[in-house]
Design a protein that fits this description.
Elements lengths: L1 E5 L4 H14 L3 E3 L10 H13 L5 E6 L3 H7 L7 E3 L3 H9 L5 E5 L5 H13 L6 H14 L4
Parallel strand pairs: 1-2, 1-3, 3-5, 4-5
Helix pairs in contact: 1-5, 2-3, 4-5
This protein binds D-ribose (RB5).
The site of D-ribose has 8 residues, from helix 3.
């Protein structure tokens, strides 16, 4: 189950991503927003990020104007590793090296085709299990827990 969320700037892109997910039979929960009316991105980032952190969703895709605000907001939730990406290499590497559990994209930065390409890579790329990557991801938890 994929968690989806956006603000007004990311609404159209989120709807396009939903069409893609429908076409591949991928289930999702849409945490809004539901129109291009101006809203505050942290509200929707928090809803989707908590669903991922709680295990109700296994991953998330979030969109705003740049992808940055919504990623900063999502990363405030414990257990979230949200990566704002604009190109394919970074998506592949953030899955492999950071075990990113949320992909954030900017609707004012990339076009729909690129966003779908990035979504495909995000879905198909597994996190690497070498000790050094696991150790570094564990350190992210240590930071969250005030141990670093
Ligand atoms: C909304 O205008 C815009 O600030 C928002 O979508 C996002 O880009 C913030 O980071």
């Amino acid at each position: 189950m994929t968690a989806l969320a956006c603000d007004h700037a990311g609404y159209i892109l989120k709807e396009e991503i939903k069409k893609y997910l429908d076409s591949i039979g991928e289930e999702y929960t849409d945490f809004g927003t539901d129109s291009e009316e101006s809203v505050d991105y942290p509200i929707y980032a928090a809803k989707a990020a908590h669903a991922v952190a709680d295990g109700k969703c296994s991953r998330g895709i979030l969109c705003c104007g740049t992808g940055i605000g919504i990623s900063i907001a999502a990363n405030k939730v414990k257990g979230i590793r949200a990566a704002c990406c604009t190109e394919e290499y970074s998506v592949e590497m953030t899955r492999k090296h950071n075990d990113a559990n949320i992909l954030c994209m900017g609707a004012r930065v990339i076009d729909t085709d690129t966003a779908i390409k990035l979504t495909k890579i995000f879905f198909k790329t597994e996190a690497l299990t070498e000790e050094r990557h696991l150790r570094r991801v564990k350190m992210l938890e240590d930071i969250e827990n005030g141990l670093m």
